[in-house]
Give the backbone structure.
Amino acid sequence: MKDGMSDIRLVPSVVSGDPSDRRSIITAASIPAKRLGIRTADPVSMALRKCPGLVIVKGDWEWYRICSRGFIEICRSYSPVLQQFSIDECFIDMTMRNWGEDPTAVAARLKDEIKEKLGFTVNVGIGPNKLLAKMASDFEKPDKVHTLWESEIAEKMWPLSVRDLLWVGKKTEERLRAYGIHTIGDLSKISVGSLTRLVGKKFALQLHEFSNGRDDSSVETEAQEAKSISAERTFPNDIGTEKDIDRALFNIACVVAHRLRRKKLSTSCISVFIKYKDFSVMQKQRQISQPTDITAVILNEARKLVWEIWDAGSPVRQIGIGVSKLIHEDIVQMSLFEDPRMDFYREWDRKYDEDMAGKEDPRLMAYETIKGSNEEDL
Protein backbone atom coordinates (compact mmCIF):
# COMPACT_ATOMS: atom_id res chain seq x y z
CA MET A 1 0.00 0.00 0.00
CA LYS A 2 1.02 3.63 -0.37
CA ASP A 3 2.31 6.00 2.30
CA GLY A 4 4.54 3.33 3.82
CA MET A 5 1.63 1.21 5.05
CA SER A 6 1.88 -2.57 5.11
CA ASP A 7 0.00 -4.58 2.50
CA ILE A 8 -3.27 -5.34 4.30
CA ARG A 9 -3.64 -8.53 2.28
CA LEU A 10 -0.74 -10.01 4.25
CA VAL A 11 -2.04 -9.25 7.75
CA PRO A 12 -5.34 -9.91 9.57
CA SER A 13 -7.48 -7.14 8.09
CA VAL A 14 -11.05 -6.46 7.03
CA VAL A 15 -13.06 -3.92 5.08
CA SER A 16 -16.23 -2.54 6.67
CA GLY A 17 -18.68 0.28 6.13
CA ASP A 18 -17.70 2.29 9.20
CA PRO A 19 -14.56 1.13 11.05
CA SER A 20 -15.42 3.34 14.05
CA ASP A 21 -18.75 1.54 14.60
CA ARG A 22 -18.27 -1.86 16.22
CA ARG A 23 -21.70 -2.86 14.88
CA SER A 24 -20.58 -2.30 11.31
CA ILE A 25 -20.62 -5.40 9.12
CA ILE A 26 -17.49 -6.84 7.49
CA THR A 27 -17.69 -6.81 3.69
CA ALA A 28 -14.29 -8.39 2.95
CA ALA A 29 -11.58 -10.15 4.93
CA SER A 30 -7.94 -10.95 4.17
CA ILE A 31 -6.76 -14.55 4.09
CA PRO A 32 -4.90 -14.17 7.44
CA ALA A 33 -8.14 -12.85 8.97
CA LYS A 34 -10.15 -15.77 7.57
CA ARG A 35 -7.66 -18.18 9.13
CA LEU A 36 -8.64 -16.69 12.49
CA GLY A 37 -12.30 -17.51 11.86
CA ILE A 38 -13.33 -14.02 10.71
CA ARG A 39 -15.95 -14.13 7.97
CA THR A 40 -17.74 -11.75 5.65
CA ALA A 41 -20.99 -10.44 7.24
CA ASP A 42 -19.58 -10.81 10.78
CA PRO A 43 -20.01 -7.69 12.96
CA VAL A 44 -16.77 -5.80 13.59
CA SER A 45 -17.21 -6.34 17.33
CA MET A 46 -17.18 -10.12 16.86
CA ALA A 47 -14.10 -9.94 14.63
CA LEU A 48 -12.25 -7.84 17.21
CA ARG A 49 -12.92 -10.48 19.86
CA LYS A 50 -11.21 -13.01 17.61
CA CYS A 51 -8.33 -10.66 16.74
CA PRO A 52 -7.87 -7.54 18.95
CA GLY A 53 -5.14 -6.25 16.62
CA LEU A 54 -7.31 -6.52 13.53
CA VAL A 55 -6.69 -3.84 10.86
CA ILE A 56 -10.03 -2.28 9.84
CA VAL A 57 -10.30 -0.27 6.64
CA LYS A 58 -13.28 1.66 5.34
CA GLY A 59 -14.46 0.51 1.92
CA ASP A 60 -14.33 2.80 -1.12
CA TRP A 61 -17.61 2.06 -2.86
CA GLU A 62 -16.96 4.08 -6.02
CA TRP A 63 -13.58 2.49 -6.63
CA TYR A 64 -15.00 -0.95 -5.89
CA ARG A 65 -17.75 -0.40 -8.44
CA ILE A 66 -15.26 0.73 -11.09
CA CYS A 67 -13.18 -2.38 -10.47
CA SER A 68 -16.31 -4.54 -10.65
CA ARG A 69 -17.24 -3.13 -14.05
CA GLY A 70 -13.75 -3.76 -15.40
CA PHE A 71 -13.76 -7.28 -13.98
CA ILE A 72 -17.14 -8.13 -15.57
CA GLU A 73 -16.11 -6.64 -18.93
CA ILE A 74 -13.04 -8.87 -19.10
CA CYS A 75 -15.04 -11.94 -18.06
CA ARG A 76 -17.71 -11.19 -20.65
CA SER A 77 -15.07 -11.05 -23.38
CA TYR A 78 -14.47 -14.76 -22.74
CA SER A 79 -18.15 -15.69 -23.06
CA PRO A 80 -21.38 -13.67 -23.38
CA VAL A 81 -23.19 -16.28 -21.29
CA LEU A 82 -22.43 -14.68 -17.92
CA GLN A 83 -24.39 -14.29 -14.70
CA GLN A 84 -23.20 -11.85 -12.04
CA PHE A 85 -23.42 -13.54 -8.64
CA SER A 86 -22.26 -10.58 -6.56
CA ILE A 87 -20.31 -7.38 -7.11
CA ASP A 88 -17.06 -9.36 -7.38
CA GLU A 89 -18.21 -12.83 -8.50
CA CYS A 90 -19.80 -14.24 -11.62
CA PHE A 91 -20.59 -17.50 -13.38
CA ILE A 92 -19.41 -17.94 -16.98
CA ASP A 93 -20.69 -20.71 -19.25
CA MET A 94 -17.68 -21.61 -21.42
CA THR A 95 -19.24 -24.68 -23.03
CA MET A 96 -19.52 -23.33 -26.59
CA ARG A 97 -17.18 -20.33 -26.65
CA ASN A 98 -14.02 -22.27 -25.79
CA TRP A 99 -14.97 -25.71 -27.07
CA GLY A 100 -11.93 -27.95 -27.45
CA GLU A 101 -9.60 -25.85 -25.31
CA ASP A 102 -8.15 -26.93 -21.99
CA PRO A 103 -10.45 -25.32 -19.36
CA THR A 104 -7.60 -24.74 -16.90
CA ALA A 105 -5.55 -22.98 -19.58
CA VAL A 106 -8.47 -20.68 -20.43
CA ALA A 107 -9.08 -19.96 -16.72
CA ALA A 108 -5.39 -19.17 -16.16
CA ARG A 109 -5.46 -16.79 -19.13
CA LEU A 110 -8.53 -15.04 -17.72
CA LYS A 111 -7.01 -14.77 -14.25
CA ASP A 112 -3.74 -13.35 -15.56
CA GLU A 113 -5.49 -10.82 -17.82
CA ILE A 114 -7.48 -9.47 -14.86
CA LYS A 115 -4.31 -9.16 -12.79
CA GLU A 116 -2.40 -7.43 -15.60
CA LYS A 117 -5.15 -4.97 -16.60
CA LEU A 118 -6.85 -4.24 -13.27
CA GLY A 119 -4.06 -4.86 -10.75
CA PHE A 120 -5.83 -7.32 -8.44
CA THR A 121 -5.95 -11.09 -8.20
CA VAL A 122 -8.89 -13.45 -8.54
CA ASN A 123 -9.51 -17.14 -8.00
CA VAL A 124 -11.16 -19.10 -10.78
CA GLY A 125 -13.15 -22.25 -10.09
CA ILE A 126 -13.96 -24.76 -12.83
CA GLY A 127 -16.74 -27.32 -12.62
CA PRO A 128 -19.57 -28.95 -14.60
CA ASN A 129 -22.20 -26.84 -12.80
CA LYS A 130 -22.48 -23.56 -10.92
CA LEU A 131 -22.26 -25.11 -7.47
CA LEU A 132 -19.03 -27.01 -8.09
CA ALA A 133 -17.46 -24.05 -9.87
CA LYS A 134 -18.31 -21.80 -6.91
CA MET A 135 -16.98 -24.32 -4.40
CA ALA A 136 -13.75 -24.65 -6.40
CA SER A 137 -13.28 -20.88 -6.50
CA ASP A 138 -13.27 -20.84 -2.69
CA PHE A 139 -10.39 -23.31 -2.41
CA GLU A 140 -6.89 -22.07 -1.56
CA LYS A 141 -6.33 -18.40 -2.43
CA PRO A 142 -5.14 -16.05 -3.85
CA ASP A 143 -4.47 -16.01 -7.59
CA LYS A 144 -5.29 -19.67 -8.19
CA VAL A 145 -7.22 -21.86 -10.60
CA HIS A 146 -9.00 -24.89 -9.13
CA THR A 147 -11.15 -27.64 -10.63
CA LEU A 148 -13.96 -29.58 -9.01
CA TRP A 149 -15.18 -32.25 -11.41
CA GLU A 150 -17.69 -34.91 -10.38
CA SER A 151 -14.83 -37.40 -10.07
CA GLU A 152 -13.11 -35.06 -7.57
CA ILE A 153 -16.06 -34.51 -5.20
CA ALA A 154 -15.08 -37.28 -2.77
CA GLU A 155 -11.48 -36.11 -2.56
CA LYS A 156 -11.86 -32.32 -2.64
CA MET A 157 -15.35 -31.46 -1.36
CA TRP A 158 -16.58 -34.14 1.01
CA PRO A 159 -13.77 -33.68 3.59
CA LEU A 160 -14.66 -29.97 3.97
CA SER A 161 -16.60 -28.64 6.94
CA VAL A 162 -20.35 -28.62 6.41
CA ARG A 163 -20.19 -24.83 6.85
CA ASP A 164 -18.19 -24.60 3.62
CA LEU A 165 -21.16 -25.82 1.57
CA LEU A 166 -22.89 -23.01 -0.29
CA TRP A 167 -25.85 -21.50 1.65
CA VAL A 168 -25.05 -23.28 4.93
CA GLY A 169 -24.99 -20.58 7.62
CA LYS A 170 -24.01 -20.62 11.27
CA LYS A 171 -27.41 -21.70 12.61
CA THR A 172 -27.74 -24.53 10.10
CA GLU A 173 -24.19 -25.62 10.85
CA GLU A 174 -24.94 -25.78 14.58
CA ARG A 175 -28.10 -27.80 13.99
CA LEU A 176 -26.32 -30.27 11.69
CA ARG A 177 -23.32 -30.67 13.99
CA ALA A 178 -25.65 -31.40 16.92
CA TYR A 179 -26.75 -34.48 14.98
CA GLY A 180 -23.20 -35.57 14.17
CA ILE A 181 -23.06 -34.09 10.68
CA HIS A 182 -19.64 -32.38 10.58
CA THR A 183 -18.45 -32.61 6.98
CA ILE A 184 -20.06 -32.25 3.56
CA GLY A 185 -19.41 -35.95 3.13
CA ASP A 186 -21.42 -36.69 6.28
CA LEU A 187 -24.25 -34.58 4.91
CA SER A 188 -24.22 -36.33 1.54
CA LYS A 189 -25.03 -39.65 3.23
CA ILE A 190 -28.11 -38.37 5.11
CA SER A 191 -31.49 -39.09 3.54
CA VAL A 192 -33.79 -36.25 2.52
CA GLY A 193 -36.35 -37.52 5.03
CA SER A 194 -33.92 -37.26 7.94
CA LEU A 195 -32.75 -33.83 6.82
CA THR A 196 -36.35 -32.64 6.52
CA ARG A 197 -36.84 -33.14 10.25
CA LEU A 198 -33.82 -30.88 10.85
CA VAL A 199 -34.18 -28.05 8.33
CA GLY A 200 -37.54 -28.41 6.57
CA LYS A 201 -38.43 -30.13 3.30
CA LYS A 202 -37.35 -27.51 0.75
CA PHE A 203 -33.94 -26.78 2.27
CA ALA A 204 -33.38 -30.48 2.98
CA LEU A 205 -33.70 -31.32 -0.70
CA GLN A 206 -31.31 -28.52 -1.64
CA LEU A 207 -28.72 -29.61 0.94
CA HIS A 208 -28.95 -33.23 -0.21
CA GLU A 209 -28.44 -32.27 -3.86
CA PHE A 210 -25.65 -29.76 -3.16
CA SER A 211 -23.72 -32.06 -0.81
CA ASN A 212 -23.66 -34.63 -3.64
CA GLY A 213 -22.46 -32.03 -6.13
CA ARG A 214 -25.71 -31.75 -8.05
CA ASP A 215 -27.01 -28.38 -9.30
CA ASP A 216 -29.20 -28.13 -12.41
CA SER A 217 -29.55 -24.32 -12.42
CA SER A 218 -28.38 -22.64 -15.61
CA VAL A 219 -26.21 -19.57 -16.07
CA GLU A 220 -28.79 -16.81 -16.45
CA THR A 221 -27.67 -14.04 -18.76
CA GLU A 222 -30.63 -11.74 -18.09
CA ALA A 223 -31.76 -10.14 -14.83
CA GLN A 224 -34.34 -12.41 -13.22
CA GLU A 225 -37.69 -11.30 -11.88
CA ALA A 226 -37.47 -10.42 -8.22
CA LYS A 227 -38.75 -13.21 -6.00
CA SER A 228 -38.67 -11.16 -2.82
CA ILE A 229 -37.86 -7.70 -1.53
CA SER A 230 -36.66 -6.93 1.95
CA ALA A 231 -35.09 -4.21 4.04
CA GLU A 232 -33.59 -4.26 7.48
CA ARG A 233 -32.03 -1.95 10.01
CA THR A 234 -29.18 -2.56 12.43
CA PHE A 235 -29.28 -0.16 15.37
CA PRO A 236 -26.22 1.71 16.74
CA ASN A 237 -27.59 0.89 20.20
CA ASP A 238 -29.97 -1.95 21.03
CA ILE A 239 -33.60 -0.88 21.31
CA GLY A 240 -36.16 -2.39 23.66
CA THR A 241 -39.31 -0.26 23.79
CA GLU A 242 -42.49 -0.66 21.77
CA LYS A 243 -42.20 2.94 20.59
CA ASP A 244 -38.68 2.47 19.20
CA ILE A 245 -39.55 -0.81 17.51
CA ASP A 246 -42.71 0.65 16.00
CA ARG A 247 -40.75 3.62 14.66
CA ALA A 248 -38.22 1.27 13.08
CA LEU A 249 -40.96 -0.85 11.52
CA PHE A 250 -42.56 2.26 10.03
CA ASN A 251 -39.30 3.38 8.39
CA ILE A 252 -38.57 -0.10 7.04
CA ALA A 253 -42.12 -0.60 5.74
CA CYS A 254 -41.88 2.69 3.85
CA VAL A 255 -38.74 1.48 2.07
CA VAL A 256 -40.11 -1.98 1.23
CA ALA A 257 -43.45 -0.66 -0.07
CA HIS A 258 -41.74 2.08 -2.09
CA ARG A 259 -39.50 -0.48 -3.80
CA LEU A 260 -42.52 -2.65 -4.56
CA ARG A 261 -44.27 0.25 -6.26
CA ARG A 262 -41.12 1.24 -8.12
CA LYS A 263 -41.00 -2.28 -9.61
CA LYS A 264 -44.79 -2.23 -10.20
CA LEU A 265 -45.26 -5.26 -7.95
CA SER A 266 -47.62 -6.27 -5.16
CA THR A 267 -47.11 -8.81 -2.39
CA SER A 268 -49.33 -11.40 -0.75
CA CYS A 269 -46.84 -12.68 1.82
CA ILE A 270 -45.21 -10.56 4.53
CA SER A 271 -42.44 -11.67 6.90
CA VAL A 272 -40.47 -10.11 9.73
CA PHE A 273 -37.37 -11.02 11.66
CA ILE A 274 -35.79 -9.84 14.89
CA LYS A 275 -32.16 -10.32 15.87
CA TYR A 276 -31.35 -10.01 19.56
CA LYS A 277 -28.08 -8.82 21.11
CA ASP A 278 -26.86 -12.44 21.40
CA PHE A 279 -27.44 -12.79 17.61
CA SER A 280 -30.31 -15.24 18.04
CA VAL A 281 -33.07 -14.66 15.48
CA MET A 282 -36.85 -14.94 15.58
CA GLN A 283 -38.89 -14.75 12.40
CA LYS A 284 -42.42 -15.26 11.17
CA GLN A 285 -44.43 -14.79 8.01
CA ARG A 286 -48.09 -14.62 7.03
CA GLN A 287 -50.02 -14.59 3.79
CA ILE A 288 -52.62 -11.90 3.24
CA SER A 289 -55.84 -12.31 1.27
CA GLN A 290 -55.41 -9.35 -1.08
CA PRO A 291 -52.06 -8.53 -2.80
CA THR A 292 -50.90 -5.04 -1.88
CA ASP A 293 -48.17 -2.44 -2.34
CA ILE A 294 -49.60 -0.08 0.28
CA THR A 295 -47.28 0.95 3.10
CA ALA A 296 -49.98 1.03 5.77
CA VAL A 297 -51.12 -2.52 5.02
CA ILE A 298 -47.59 -3.91 5.04
CA LEU A 299 -46.78 -2.01 8.23
CA ASN A 300 -49.93 -3.22 10.00
CA GLU A 301 -49.19 -6.88 9.17
CA ALA A 302 -45.55 -6.47 10.19
CA ARG A 303 -46.61 -5.02 13.53
CA LYS A 304 -48.87 -8.00 14.24
CA LEU A 305 -46.08 -10.44 13.41
CA VAL A 306 -43.49 -8.63 15.53
CA TRP A 307 -45.73 -8.50 18.58
CA GLU A 308 -46.23 -12.26 18.22
CA ILE A 309 -42.50 -13.09 18.24
CA TRP A 310 -40.87 -10.30 20.25
CA ASP A 311 -39.96 -11.10 23.81
CA ALA A 312 -41.21 -7.77 25.18
CA GLY A 313 -38.47 -5.72 26.77
CA SER A 314 -35.63 -7.80 25.31
CA PRO A 315 -33.06 -5.58 23.54
CA VAL A 316 -33.22 -5.81 19.75
CA ARG A 317 -30.10 -5.39 17.62
CA GLN A 318 -31.66 -5.69 14.16
CA ILE A 319 -35.12 -5.84 12.66
CA GLY A 320 -36.35 -6.42 9.13
CA ILE A 321 -39.39 -6.80 6.89
CA GLY A 322 -39.61 -8.96 3.79
CA VAL A 323 -42.28 -9.43 1.14
CA SER A 324 -42.64 -12.35 -1.27
CA LYS A 325 -45.17 -14.05 -3.57
CA LEU A 326 -44.89 -11.02 -5.82
CA ILE A 327 -47.16 -10.31 -8.78
CA HIS A 328 -47.40 -7.44 -11.24
CA GLU A 329 -49.87 -4.75 -10.28
CA ASP A 330 -51.74 -5.01 -13.58
CA ILE A 331 -53.09 -8.44 -12.62
CA VAL A 332 -54.15 -7.57 -9.06
CA GLN A 333 -57.90 -8.00 -8.60
CA MET A 334 -59.72 -5.22 -6.79
CA SER A 335 -61.92 -6.17 -3.85
CA LEU A 336 -65.56 -5.11 -3.87
CA PHE A 337 -65.37 -4.57 -0.12
CA GLU A 338 -62.18 -2.53 0.06
CA ASP A 339 -61.50 -0.50 3.17
CA PRO A 340 -62.49 3.13 2.41
CA ARG A 341 -59.25 4.26 4.04
CA MET A 342 -57.27 2.79 1.12
CA ASP A 343 -57.72 5.96 -0.93
CA PHE A 344 -56.11 7.99 1.84
CA TYR A 345 -53.24 5.46 2.14
CA ARG A 346 -52.64 5.46 -1.63
CA GLU A 347 -52.49 9.25 -1.71
CA TRP A 348 -49.97 9.19 1.17
CA ASP A 349 -47.88 6.64 -0.76
CA ARG A 350 -48.06 8.73 -3.93
CA LYS A 351 -46.65 11.76 -2.12
CA TYR A 352 -43.98 9.62 -0.47
CA ASP A 353 -42.90 8.23 -3.85
CA GLU A 354 -42.74 11.72 -5.33
CA ASP A 355 -40.60 12.89 -2.43
CA MET A 356 -38.30 9.86 -2.75
CA ALA A 357 -37.90 10.23 -6.52
CA GLY A 358 -35.17 12.81 -6.11
CA LYS A 359 -33.56 11.23 -3.07
CA GLU A 360 -32.84 7.63 -4.13
CA ASP A 361 -29.21 6.86 -3.49
CA PRO A 362 -27.86 5.63 -6.87
CA ARG A 363 -25.30 3.50 -5.06
CA LEU A 364 -28.04 1.54 -3.25
CA MET A 365 -29.99 1.18 -6.48
CA ALA A 366 -26.90 -0.17 -8.25
CA TYR A 367 -26.16 -2.51 -5.37
CA GLU A 368 -29.74 -3.81 -5.44
CA THR A 369 -29.37 -4.63 -9.13
CA ILE A 370 -26.02 -6.33 -8.61
CA LYS A 371 -27.14 -8.46 -5.68
CA GLY A 372 -30.29 -9.62 -7.41
CA SER A 373 -31.75 -10.83 -4.14
CA ASN A 374 -33.21 -7.39 -3.42
CA GLU A 375 -32.20 -7.49 0.21
CA GLU A 376 -31.08 -4.13 1.58
CA ASP A 377 -29.85 -2.58 4.78
CA LEU A 378 -31.25 0.85 5.59
In short: DSSP finds 14 helices and twelve strands in the chain.
